[in-house]
Amino acid sequence: MSHFTLGEDQLQVQELVRRVAREKVAPRAQEIDRTAEYPQDMFDMLKELGLFLLPFPEEFGGANSMLSACVAVEEFGRVCYNTAYLLLVQWVPIGAIMAGGTEEQKKKYLPGLAAGDLRGAISLTEPQSGSDLAGLKTRAVRDGDHYVLNGNKIWCTNSGMADFVLVAARTGTGDDRGKINLFIVDTDTPGFNVGPKEDKMGARGVPSHSVYLEDCRVPATAMLGDEETGFRVAMAALNESRPIIGARAVGCAQGALDHSVAFIKDRHAFGQSIADFQGIRWMVADMETQTQAARLLVYQAAAAVDAGVRGHALGQMAAIAKCFSTDTAMKVATDAVQLFGAAGISNEYGINRYFRDAKVLQIIEGTNQIQRNIISRNVLR
């Protein structure tokens, strides 16, 4: 593995998380996936280790390092997608609140997120609009010093556990579809209702829910930032967290490769080890090459965040890293299942878990088709 930009801090994080992942997390991974129950014990462990702090600014006690965050997510992702996911869902609201929030909002929510005392979620997707954010229909109508929210959301991951959710809604009345803004809605607000959890193919340990907003009344101060720039600034901040998605994909690919190598070295056919067949060795070589390339792209994007790169330059790097790494996870996991043969489709072996989780990664946080739109638009600009 290349340490091209990993400093002493990142190497210490890597060593700690790799040991914890192997000793504490790996024995739980299959059960978390099988039961699809929220792994509170894993959340408590992450909180106790202080790992939620990694990408937070130093003023909140954090390491202020997206690269360290990606290293941690990759190492957990090698053994358990869902434990890595716990870090991600804690971190996604950070960038939006840091970039677009008021000082009051930052003081209210960020220390709790950093310490693991608060949990958040972000809700953009609706039944009729996933990638097409401009098509969302949830409305926020001003009423004095409050807004009243009405609408339905789907695939709101972590909303069943969250203390607050960043909800995207249209402002404006009548025929004026208005702007889109984010509202920080505490989940105990009357009119905010969470539906049953989805029965998902992958990413099963961190539930996703529908959210129903019925005359949900929030103070005007719940709008993230101001009406003119808050949403745009918050959305731009999602580029800063996108490398974490890529890190999860690198971890998924590396874990699938780890399992495959152990499996083929222990199996024999036609009088020799399966690992000695040239066709098998070439598959392993491709899996290793693709995983290494994905890792470098993700680390480069994360290092760019830490270096203060923003705008189109960061958006391009983040899109490339997300797209390539998640496609790599899918390809490596697919080859891993093939290497396992009939065992690969058995639930007795965890390799099909990597296959299912990898497919999820190609879809969430901006489908890879959307990432390709971003990449090509920047190239052709």
From TrEMBL:
Keywords: FAD, Flavoprotein, Oxidoreductase. Coiled coil: none annotated. Residues 121-216 form the Acyl-CoA oxidase/dehydrogenase middle domain. Pfam families: Acyl-CoA_dh_1, Acyl-CoA_dh_M, Acyl-CoA_dh_N. The keyword Oxidoreductase applies. Residues 229-380 form the Acyl-CoA dehydrogenase/oxidase C-terminal domain. InterPro entries: Acyl-CoA_Oxase/DH_mid-dom, Acyl-CoA_Oxase/DH_mid-dom_sf, AcylCo_DH-like_C, AcylCo_DH/oxidase_C, AcylCoA_DH/ox_N, AcylCoA_DH/ox_N_sf, AcylCoA_DH/oxidase_NM_dom_sf. One of its GO terms (molecular function) is flavin adenine dinucleotide binding. Residues 8-117 form the Acyl-CoA dehydrogenase/oxidase N-terminal domain. It catalyses: 3-sulfinopropanoyl-CoA + H2O = propanoyl-CoA + sulfite + H(+). Its cofactor is FAD. PANTHER family: ACYL-COA DEHYDROGENASE, ISOVALERYL-COA DEHYDROGENASE, MITOCHONDRIAL-RELATED. Belongs to the acyl-CoA dehydrogenase family. This is 3-sulfinopropanoyl-CoA desulfinase. It comes from Pseudooceanicola nanhaiensis.
